[in-house]
Amino acid sequence: MDSWIRIFLIVHQLLIQGYMNDNRYCKEAVQTVKTVSSCPTSKEQWDKAASKKKCWEKALKQNCTILDNFVYHCVINGYGNTTLEVCAPKRIILGHCAEFNEVGGVIQDQQLSPCSDVFPKCDHFYWSSEAFKYEDCYKLVEANEITTTLTTVKHVLSNETIGGIIKG
Ligand SMILES: *[C@@H]1O[C@H](CO)[C@@H](O)[C@H](O)[C@H]1NC(C)=O
Ligand SMILES: *[C@@H]1O[C@H](CO)[C@@H](O)[C@H](O)[C@H]1NC(C)=O
Ligand SMILES: *[C@@H]1O[C@H](CO)[C@@H](O)[C@H](O)[C@H]1NC(C)=O
Known about the structure:
Distance between the termini: 71 Å
Number of helices: 5
Bound molecules: 2-acetamido-2-deoxy-beta-D-glucopyranose
Structural class: alpha+beta
Largest sheet: 5 strands, mixed
Radius of gyration: 19 Å
């Protein structure tokens, strides 16, 4: 696509996001949240999961966004400790992993996870409905689990060490 058209479309979408309700709490989206153990990482898998979730039916019963924008997503949650499926207004994500924030009730940039050349790899801008392209963003959940486990292990070890020193 001609890059000026692309830029125009992005600016257009960002204006819609700013002026319309797409960045506000969407009750109908929150009601569709289901935690899942993994997310689709290809267009084919994504479309298959989307046809099961039937977001178009729910799209008719919401006022959060225009009909076509209320679509299937599989993204991480706001804490980055699980993956979830949700029907929600799609949004443009700017240089971060995409999250569905259950408190805010919106799809948005996960501020703690900026895209990087190393990890997580993702693009400067993309539609949240194409999150399947950025597998690293799903891997953040595992990475966070490992960090939590390591912190616990560290605490146990340091307690044992301290205990040992006191006893010894
Ligand atoms: C959407 O808005 C219309 C008009 O304001 C209203 O009649 C309808 O009940 C709303 N639907 C939902 C699901 O909020
Ligand atoms: C994720 O983290 C939040 C806040 O620490 C916690 O309340 C929630 O239970 C966690 N969820 C999972 C699936 O671990
Ligand atoms: C380690 O010791 C601290 C302080 O005594 C305590 O608060 C913490 O729960 C202990 N952690 C573990 C994993 O035993």
